[in-house]
Amino acid sequence: MKSKRTILLTGATGFLGSNLLGTLTADGYDIMVLARRSSDLSRLKAPPGKLRVVYAEDCDYEALFRESRIDAVVHCATNYGRRMDFPVSVLEANLMLPLKLLQIGQASGLKCFLNTDTILDKRVNYYSLSKSQFRDWLKLYSGKLACVNVSLEHFYGPDDDDSKFVTWAVQALINGSPKLELTPGYQKRDFIYIDDVCGAFSAVLRNCLLKGSGFYSYEVGSGEPVTIRDFVALIKRLARNEATALDFGAIPYRENEVMEHATDLSGVMALGWRPKVSLRDGLARTVEFETRRRGDK
Question: Per residue in 4-56, pLDDT tens?
């Protein structure tokens, strides 16, 4: 008789997925990672026997679900479109791949599909539009299994992708760039540390594996939004930078810019989750990591 839950995790070679992999293996799950052969697997760390890598190029998905008896899919693979990717490339990761896993998983007795979503309005860019489109498909399948949607505020932490706003700002201020060109900076954003995000996923997954079919939606953030002006100024202080000019207003707000979004944490907090890392502490850890990495180069 099977005693442990098996989770199929996508996006495990990325920042969120690799951190979540550590959390889920610590929770006792057996993890199957879906990755491309070209992916850098150096971030994949798990105890012996807890991890199996499946390559997408060679994968027979129907056989995979039939033979592995997967209990839940946790979909973290994401294309943000930051590298000027064409819409089709964004759709492959954010819509077509999860839809394939959802369709085949449902037909194979999958208990739960947990999708990583964004709080961004669908009109902002290709990324947010594709996320919105998959959310509709997830609702369509919710009569057949537990379909869980986790909308994330702006998560950050050590060793995140250099293209992310937080990492870019931290690195620029550590390196003493002469000037940072920014928007006016009055928009408020909720920044949440990666460890707290993983804790929220852990609570949601544990709960959804006990649920029947239905659509379950959660929002995850710190609950303490801050203006971009204050956020960048805090990084500058933590980096002990007195030289860099913060040129607020050099860049206009993007089209359809949301000035503030009220995150509803009631659902995830009802599961017993609470954010533990303050903005100052989380940024201090990130600045320390990037400073150390700069010194190692």
Answer: 899 999 999 999 999 999 999 999 999 999 998 888 888 888 776 778 999 98
Residue 28 lies in a domain: yes
Does residue 124 sit within a domain? yes
Q: Does residue 32 contact residue 10 with C-beta atoms inside 8 Å?
A: no
3-state secondary structure of 243: coil
Task: Please state, in angstroms and rounded to a whole number, the distance separating the CA atoms of residues 193 and 214.
Answer: 29
Question: DSSP label at 163?
Answer: T
3-state secondary structure of 279: helix
Q: What is the pLDDT of residue 87?
A: 84
Nearest to 35 by CA among 99, 104, 112, 93: 93
| 84 has a pLDDT exceeding 50 | yes
Angle at 82 between CA 154 and CA 35, to 5 degrees: 85
> What's the CA gap between 151 and 220, in Å, rounded?
6
pTM for this entry: 0.93
Taking the C-alpha atoms of residue 52 and residue 50, their distance in angstroms, rounded to an integer, is 7
What total of structural domains would you count in the chain? 1
Provide the residue range defining the domain that includes 17. Answer: 6-152
Name the band, by pLDDT with cuts 50, 70 and 90, for residue 1.
Answer: very low
Measured between alpha carbons, how far is residue 72 from residues 48, 75, 115, 146, 204 in Å?
A: 21, 10, 11, 9, 12
> Does 65 reside within a domain?
yes
Residue 101 domain-assigned?
yes
Asked if residue 141 lies in contact with residue 114, where contact means CB atoms within 8 angstroms, the answer is no
SS3 call for 162: coil
Evaluate whether 130 touches 94 at the Cβ level (below 8 Å).
yes
Res 89: pLDDT: 86
Q: How far is CA 230 from the centre of its chain?
A: 24
